[in-house]
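Section handout 9: paired folding examples.
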Amino acid sequence: MGATETMRAWAVENPGPLERGPLSLRSRPMPRAEADELLVRVLVCGVCRTDLHVAEGDLPVHRPGVVPGHEVVGEVVEKGTEVTEFEVGDRVGIAWLRRTCGRCTYCRGGRENLCPRSLYTGWDADGGYAEHTTVPAQYAYRLPPGYADEQLAPLLCAGLIGYRAWLRAQVPDGGRLGIYGFGASAHLTAQVALASGVTVHVLTRSEAARSLALELGAASAGGPADRPPEPLDSAVLFAPVGDLVPVALEALDRGGTLAIAGIHLTDVPVLTYQRHLFYERTVRSVTANTRCDGQEFFRFAARHPLRVTTTPYLFEEADRALADLAGDRVRGAAILRIGSAT
């Protein structure tokens, strides 16, 4: 590709509230693949709540003018000189975790998601709200068969983080899981739980989301402050609302575990030891995922077909998609159609 070629991309030029227009659609030089990277033509990109946090400045700026988006399905159009695991024309997935050092205690111990030198797609490096992007080949995913491009995109973050949260929640066999918030990630995690023989109770403010939860097989669906119909063995908090932490903890049975899945959470109110933490209740956070988690999740998705509910948007509507996500107007996962998606 010629060095002067350009592409269209959305950039976060002025992080702040959406009504101030932090995203701008611009013409940018075409990126080039480094020796260990792939250049990918973006077909579709999921719209994630983390993108909203980047756009609104809830997450500190790591790269001024960054192109958000880390749920990318695309086609390899160029590969670096060191790349052997992919070929031009391959369909690949690009997720949030972009690079790790490979040398620290966490990387060597199988916990690369905790690497202090980790870098992230759409935060430290330009992501998928663009016609082309790059990815280190060792952090790209081969995707499971049987899914269209638009169905695959949400799996690359909503699915991966939900799967990591599911693991962190330590749901016992045949247990009772509460899910707080029911957007893109939660509706996939619920299906993983149901396929594993777990009873699922959903607690969320959106009436449409409660309806979807029941369609997918949840045993109950109520408001976020409601008490589930039975004590929970585990819970996952997807809504970025700190006020729900004590609510979820009170709903846990003795020995229960709460996993908090978001990268950003509003302040947590004061907890009362006797009401919220006694009887060996546990609170755990979730930080990204490892590549091993991703590969395991995609094997699960190949064995257990997931119903991926999406709301599509044109590439030119990225700012509207983020606004709809912020306003709980998205059913399932929002998707930007950029290339020729299947």
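Moving on to protein 2 of 2.
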Amino acid sequence: MKLTLSISKKECDLIHEQSLKLLQTMGITIFSKEALEVFKKAGARVQENQVFIDADLVEESLKMVPHAFPIYSNTKRVVVGKGKLCSLPPYGGTYVSRNEHIALGTRNDYLNFTKLNQLNEYISMACPYTLEPFDIPLEQRNIYRMAMILKYSDKPSLSIVGSREESRKCIEMVRRYYGITNKPVVLGNVNVSAPMIMGLSTTEAITVHCEENQPLMIACGSGLSGLTAPPTPGGNFLLANAGILAGIVFAQIQSPGLPIIYGLPLFGVDPFKAETSVGSPATALFTLAAKGMAEYYQIPFRAGGTFTDSKYLDYQSGFESGINLLSCLLAEVDCLMHSFGMEDALKTINYNKYVLDEYMYLSLKDFVKGMEINDVTIMTDEILKVGSTGNYISSRNLKLIRKQYPKHGFGEGKTKAEVLKKTDDEINRRLNNYEFPAPTKDQIKILRGYLPDEYID
């Protein structure tokens, strides 16, 4: 018994065919002269800032994308694809919440979550965009974040995807720190904007990752139905898919065979406020749709996380996070974004929720795994042996029950204050137990070449 959900082959055919139509007749707006020239040399029709991509170029580009690929640090290797789940940390937080106190993120919070992600066996990679450390000057912030990932984590990491210079400097620093020159060491996450725009920083980040042979997640997740996307979820989905295909073509033209992850972080919309609603059921449905298209194209895909619009640990928070995380597991995502701790429409990372989401993840994994029904597990012989008036009390059965019915979390009947205290104690326990080898003198020297001493925590 295995639970899984997606969209149909017929629906995938329709989305793909109409995406090709959009790319060929409407095209995509691009603001980089270099990117326009790249498309033009590849045979795309270019008129001012508009690029029109024919079906053959799209199809040939898709054929070149690998079905799976590895990413390396100096001690670890993570595989994306091949049925393996690559889970990623929280991403994009502005605020942090702990025990219902909310504040802007600081460098101390950034280091805490870098360490928590390193310690967490259910998180595969590190992430420099976990949150904004506002007490680090803006001009130093991106390099600081990447440097602290290197110093406090040995998991492969997402990259910095800023300007051409920032993107290249990030890749260079990681390679030097690890002593790796010929393997993928970071994963870039770029976004094609809705309706159909590829901004300058996006084209520059894609180009740098292509030149440095580093894999990319290409997403188009900014469509808001009724504003930057059509009012129906299907129209939003079509527009996003076309944008992703344009990004894939741009990358494959420059670096044939570059590993790429299909990204569809689309959200619902609040129809009365014209705002994104990440906790909407539509968000979970978009995740399941992404599975269908990724399988259709036979490339890895990313989606979802513990999304909620709630600002607090309440009924809404648990329900919305649960349905979104469940959709990711049902869809068997290759890359699970925003794994634990997100709240308030991705504005906040909540320390307490980080722990609670981890327990929810384990419970939902058990649920999606389903139950085994076979000659052994139905235990006919045991039933006949016990008879109609016996019982199944034994130490052997107790062990079997605990294996078959795993329990995650703090138990039932806890007050909110008790839950906050227990999760806070768990966060403190993990941080107090954090141990990591100190950087070598050469590694510290490398960091000092990019960052002033005052910011090397």
